[in-house]
Write a sequence for this structure.
């Protein structure tokens, strides 16, 4: 199994698909695996993410915020979801987490622990598909989630939607 994205000794992000019947039970399983391996496991809803760079940036901002002693939330996992959403509101952050039924996720182990992936593979299927492409439907969803207007996108160019989203994440860091 090839890792999707690996930062130098800090964290790793892989892509996975899973079906969840009972979200509370699934989250408890993920927490147990994280505790056993002394890591945090964050599952981002890939349908609402602008690719792996979006997930990576959310983790980096969450790391800086959470370990600064002035976090927005009381858990590293929620901190990462808040930054993924570019919002201080938990109701927005949950849109960037997993949900019941079919999920496509960017799964992060922070800090990196190579052994966590084997345990996680009992609960999800890791894939190497290209989830960085932004289809017209996904573009519309991202525009809505991040309040990006057609005019704003026309000015910078449609190919720069990721840059606009990463700018929203950076603004959360500034306005907190």
């Amino acid at each position: 199994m090839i890792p999707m994205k690996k930062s130098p000794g800090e964290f790793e992000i892989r892509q996975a698909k899973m079906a969840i019947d009972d979200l509370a039970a699934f989250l408890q399983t993920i927490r147990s695996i994280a505790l056993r391996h002394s890591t945090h496991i964050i599952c981002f809803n890939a349908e609402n993410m602008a690719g792996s760079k979006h997930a990576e940036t959310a983790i980096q901002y969450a790391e800086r915020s959470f370990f600064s002693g002035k976090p927005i939330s009381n858990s590293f996992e929620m901190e990462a979801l808040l930054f993924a959403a570019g919002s201080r509101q938990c109701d927005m952050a949950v849109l960037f987490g997993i949900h019941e039924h079919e999920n496509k996720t960017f799964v992060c182990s922070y800090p990196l622990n190579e052994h966590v992936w084997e345990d996680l593979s009992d609960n999800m299927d890791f894939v190497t598909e290209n989830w960085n492409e932004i289809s017209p439907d996904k573009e519309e969803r991202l525009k809505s989630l991040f309040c990006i207007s057609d005019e704003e996108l026309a000015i910078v160019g449609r190919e720069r939607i990721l840059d606009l989203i990463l700018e929203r994440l950076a603004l959360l860091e500034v306005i907190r």
Summary: The first strand starts at residue 5 and ends at 6. Strands lie at 5-6, 12-20, 40-45, 101-110, 125-127.
